[in-house]
């Protein structure tokens, strides 16, 4: 059992936590720790075009999250908003040591990981990031290319400028190729995860747990925000009434109770405050977690990277 899961169980036992808005951490396979609830800039804060002008809306959204205690901040060069994230960090006044900052490389053709990483650091205005990810494996034409890129990632970890390194959107075959030559296994695999995409084909979650690779979920509320009216709605609603919370909080809790690091992109301050205050105060039972999973498997919805998968593919 992870320390994070144990912490949530303490809060669910009926004894209120000393700090209501506490966000627990999960220990990674390299010994570093990651906050289990994070704020992702994601495609919700995507910046189009190559303008150097800062987008104040993106800055303010990130700043709102930081000021409300969301110190796990997840970005990517592919979102085009690393400079805005860096500006929000600078304006927040929060000590760098308290923040957990993630960004990602798009692995542009003909460009080294080092070049991409140095550019990201400059845009963020930071000396290091806590987690650096390869954004997807779909650019690679061979296992050897995945292995070469991972070796470049390992050099960044050796340098100390990326405290932890990992991947995103990898399937077991991509991970297997990477692990064949890896000196360090990926610390995390960040994936789209919600009841309608549980990756049961190929048992991705089982593979990750077997290899000690932490799971980070993006788009965890897809059943509510993108695919409403599906088979989990009634379960979410019933459990929300039982625990005196919202269906969204049930959706987030469902991920957290599986030991999965969970990202949100909400920019609504009241919602961010409510989540931090209420999520530590209840815990779904194993039967409830299983019920949501079972009902979720009655539907299927993939929001991202759809061109790489056939209709109905649940990998």
Automatic annotation (TrEMBL):
Top-level taxon of the source organism: Eukaryota
Record flagged with keyword NADP: yes
Short name of one Pfam family: Aldo_ket_red
PROSITE patterns documented for this protein: ALDOKETO_REDUCTASE_2 (PS00062)
UniProt: substrate binding residues: 135
Ribosomal protein among keywords: no
Residues flagged as site, Lowers pKa of active site Tyr: 104
Keywords carried by this UniProt record: NADP, Oxidoreductase
Domain NADP-dependent oxidoreductase: 40-293
Protein family membership: Belongs to the aldo/keto reductase family.
The name this protein goes by in its record: NADP-dependent oxidoreductase domain-containing protein
Species this protein is from: Thermothelomyces thermophilus (strain ATCC 42464 / BCRC 31852 / DSM 1799) (Sporotrichum thermophile)
Organism placement in taxonomy: Eukaryota, Fungi, Dikarya, Ascomycota, Pezizomycotina
């Amino acid at each position: 059992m992870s320390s994070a899961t144990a912490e949530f169980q303490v809060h669910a036992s009926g004894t209120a936590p000393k700090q209501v808005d506490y966000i627990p951490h999960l220990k990674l396979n390299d010994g570093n720790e990651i906050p289990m609830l994070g704020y992702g800039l994601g495609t919700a804060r995507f910046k189009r075009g190559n303008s150097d002008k800062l987008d104040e809306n993106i800055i303010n959204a990130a700043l709102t999250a930081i000021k409300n205690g969301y110190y796990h901040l997840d970005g990517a060069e592919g979102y085009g908003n690393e400079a805005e994230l860096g500006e929000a960090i600078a304006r927040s006044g929060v000590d760098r040591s308290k923040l957990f900052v993630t960004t990602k490389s798009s692995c542009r053709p003909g460009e080294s990981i080092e070049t991409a990483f140095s550019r990201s650091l400059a845009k963020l205005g930071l000396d290091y990031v806590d987690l650096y990810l390869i954004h997807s494996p779909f650019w690679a034409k061979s296992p050897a290319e995945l292995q070469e890129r991972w070796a470049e990632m390992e050099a960044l970890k050796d340098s100390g400028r990326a405290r932890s390194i990992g991947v995103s959107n990898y399937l077991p075959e991509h991970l297997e190729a990477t692990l064949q030559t890896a000196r360090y296994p990926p610390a995390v695999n960040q994936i789209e995860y919600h009841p309608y995409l549980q990756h049961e084909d190929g048992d991705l979650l089982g593979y990750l747990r077997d290899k000690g690779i932490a799971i980070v979920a993006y788009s965890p509320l897809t059943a509510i925000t993108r695919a409403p009216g599906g088979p989990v709605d009634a379960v979410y609603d019933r459990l929300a009434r039982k625990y005196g919370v919202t269906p969204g909080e049930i959706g987030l809790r469902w991920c957290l109770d599986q030991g999965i690091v969970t990202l949100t992109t909400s920019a609504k301050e009241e919602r961010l405050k409510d989540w931090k205050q209420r999520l530590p105060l209840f815990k779904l039972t194993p039967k409830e977690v299983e019920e949501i999973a079972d009902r979720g498997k009655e539907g299927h919805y993939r929001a991202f990277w759809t061109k790489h998968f056939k209709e109905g593919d649940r990998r």
